[in-house]
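Sample pair:
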Amino acid sequence: MLLTNSIATFGSYVLFMRRVFGRPPRRNVMWQRFIFEINKLGVDSIPLVIVISLFIGAVITIQMKLNTESPLIPSYSVGLATRDIVLLEFSNSILCLILAGKVGSNIASEIGTMRVTEQIDALDIMGVNSASYLVLPKVAAFIFYMPVLVAFCIATSILGGYLVAQFTDVITVANYVYGVQAMFNEWYVWSGFIKALFFAYIIASVASFYGYYVRGGALEVGKASTNAVVSSSILILLLDVILTKLMMQ
């Protein structure tokens, strides 16, 4: 039964995305909604990204120092490990899991509310491709702005570790900075950006799917938001394994 429901849901999602990319709205309408969604989904997420990244960077630095106390391990390895953890996983996978809760639930509840209040039905009656009109700007805007959020995450996470080095005796600033710069692999940065683009698409499209097909009232809108976050998180983790295997072998 679970497998059958999963296959049916996936089929409905594929048909839904075909409608989303089928007949886009007029160019000027698309552009206006695109700018609006960038501000709502992307710019409004910057404070959350900065706060979380700052503290996570600090915690990673402290934990790495506490768990690598050995005369055989150079002291600068704390900065090196903090940098690689941030670049390889936190700035893309973990960040997108967090954004799935904020952005995904926002999208699902917004579109779900429009469904239960019959605003989507009104668009369909007027001959508008409601799936494309509502969803395409959200997907495009979130994918477009995700690299900016990743860049903020990387910068503030490393800054969080630097503040630990600056204001505590966990590690010296010189060792931390040297570790951040040592044995730098540029591909780690690009792989993080690439993975984040895939995850952004999953968050926006899956949340829109669950919101669009809400049936019922306010209670069902809440359930759709929960299902959107759970499904997005599972898909992000699954895709993370696949992309990591493909890009890091």
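DSSP finds nine helices and no strands in the chain.
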